């Protein structure tokens, strides 16, 4: 794997004496920690690096192709097997073409945006490479802002091809736009202001308000068949409790993506896997003969939001894969988590969405003692890096990343990310198998 080419490379022949001195001085000043695997320098009084002389960022074509094919080939196969309505098929294809354009737009804009954030000293150091030359490289922060803005532009423009002022789903679509945009803004604010955790938990609650207020669906749930004998009825109207549940779902999705992080490529990679699993589920439900037209429209609505998310996430992953040329920041994790939560809420498949989030649920449950301060919780719950071997070893911190290292042994950051993403794929596959096995028995 190649080192970031957008920024000064770690070789002594590439780093100029002045650049090396600038980096050393910043390290001696001990800048306060930033988000996840970086240390952010906000010393605006010091001059930023001469970004005009920096080479272009490195795009990891091979890795992006691997993740893209792994996730999108099943989706393409299911799509080719379905006999969709002509109008629906055309709208899906138009949305797909716009998603491909979003992928290339993200790849094109990130190098431009990185120069501006470096001028404002919004960069970090990779703590998982601390002690090596790679740990001295200044990496642009908050590049999730680029993918988020491109995403919003694409789904706004898509309204021209599918929605009319009389469309039944237009209100929900615009509410989804508002919530995602709100969360993107709050994520960027968090990257800049470094908001405390107790306040971070409240941010998704505010961002989810447009979706919750625009929600016009039923608040009635279907009692599982094995429990109907005990309840004595088949349907249960939860009323405001159901909307409270949807708000909590939005809080969980955004924060769960945010805390399963710290490894190059993990945040964008898990987003791609979950979004592709949602796309496959949407197509399977649209093609099912047992669902009514309203359910089909709900899953088509989800599909229109997920295809662009896959496109911009893959574009970001091209730069964020190990060794990362950019950091995604809380801007991306909050934006991606809210986009996933919105489709689960408005698409009426929140139970299936939670199954897709199985690794994030395990990570959250395992992290509870530290999150509640029962066990000491450092700011960065990262593995330990051995600068001699270049391998990561599991620390005492309680999260899925360290658990994998303790169970499977030390490995490089590159292969650790691959293992975690394969685990995400296996969990999503398990969700589909479980749904098939309990179909007709559970509900």
Topology:
Blueprint: H1 17-28, H2 61-81, H3 86-119, E1 123-124, E2 139-140, H4 144-162, H5 170-193, H6 197-200, H7 203-207, H8 209-214, E3 220-222, H9 225-231, E4 235-237, H10 240-259, H11 266-286, H12 293-320, H13 329-346, H14 350-356, H15 358-371, E5 384-386, E6 391-393, H16 400-408, H17 413-438
Antiparallel strand pairs: 1-2, 3-4, 5-6
Helix pairs in contact: 2-11, 2-12, 3-4, 3-12, 4-5, 4-12, 4-13, 5-13, 10-13, 10-15, 11-12, 11-13, 11-17, 12-13, 13-14
List the defining traits of the structure above.
443 residues, disordered N terminus
Mean pLDDT: 84
The main sheet orders its strands as 1-2
Tell me the span between the first and last alpha carbons: 48 Å
Estimated share of beta-strand residues:
under 5%
Globally, the shape reads: globular
**What is the tally of beta strands?**
6
The structure class reads mainly alpha
N-to-C order of helices and strands: HHHEEHHHHHEHEHHHHHHEEHH
The largest pleated sheet is described as: 2 strands, antiparallel
Q: Give unreliable regions as ranges.
A: 1-55
Helix content: 55-70%
What value does the Rg take, in angstroms? 22 Å
Number of helices: 17
């Amino acid at each position: 794997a190649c080192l970031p080419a957008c920024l000064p490379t770690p070789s002594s022949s590439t780093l100029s004496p002045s650049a090396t001195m600038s980096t050393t001085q910043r390290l001696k000043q001990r800048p306060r920690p930033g988000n996840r695997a970086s240390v952010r320098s906000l010393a605006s009084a010091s001059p930023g690096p001469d970004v005009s002389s920096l080479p272009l960022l490195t795009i990891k074509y091979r890795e992006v192709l691997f993740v893209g094919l792994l996730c999108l080939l099943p989706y393409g196969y299911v799509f080719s097997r379905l006999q969709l309505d002509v109008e629906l098929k055309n709208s899906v294809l138009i949305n797909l073409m716009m998603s491909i354009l979003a992928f290339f737009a993200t790849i094109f804009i990130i190098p431009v945006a990185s120069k501006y954030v470096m001028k404002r000293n919004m960069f970090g150091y990779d703590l998982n490479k601390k002690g090596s030359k790679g740990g001295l490289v200044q990496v642009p922060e908050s590049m999730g802002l680029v993918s988020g803005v491109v995403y919003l532009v694409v789904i706004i423009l898509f309204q021209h091809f599918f929605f009319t002022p009389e469309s039944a789903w237009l209100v929900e679509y615009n509410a989804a736009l508002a919530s995602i945009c709100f969360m993107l803004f709050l994520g960027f604010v968090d990257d800049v202001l470094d908001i405390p955790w107790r306040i971070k938990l409240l941010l998704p609650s505010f961002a989810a308000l447009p979706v919750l207020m625009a929600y016009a669906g039923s608040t009635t749930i279907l009692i599982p068949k094995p429990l109907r004998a005990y309840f004595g009825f088949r349907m249960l109207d939860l009323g405001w409790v159901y909307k409270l549940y949807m708000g909590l779902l939005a809080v969980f999705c955004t924060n769960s993506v945010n805390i399963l992080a710290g490894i190059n490529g993990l945040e964008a990679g898990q987003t791609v896997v979950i979004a592709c699993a949602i796309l496959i589920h949407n197509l399977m439900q649209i093609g099912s003969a047992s669902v009514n037209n309203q359910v089909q429209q709900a899953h088509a609505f989800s599909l229109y939001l997920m295809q662009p998310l896959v496109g911009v996430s893959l574009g970001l992953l091209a730069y964020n894969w190990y060794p990362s040329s950019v950091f995604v920041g809380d801007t991306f994790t909050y934006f991606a988590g809210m986009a996933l939560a919105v489709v689960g809420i408005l698409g009426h498949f929140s139970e299936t969405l939670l199954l897709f989030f199985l690794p994030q649920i395990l990570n959250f449950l395992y992290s509870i003692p530290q999150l509640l301060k029962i066990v000491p919780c450092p700011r960065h719950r990262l593995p330990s890096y051995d600068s001699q071997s270049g391998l990561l070893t599991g620390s005492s911190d309680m999260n899925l990343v360290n658990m994998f290292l303790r169970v499977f042994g030390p490995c490089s950051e590159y292969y650790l990310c691959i293992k975690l993403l394969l685990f995400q794929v296996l969990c999503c596959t398990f969700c589909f198998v479980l749904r098939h096995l309990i179909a007709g028995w559970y509900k």
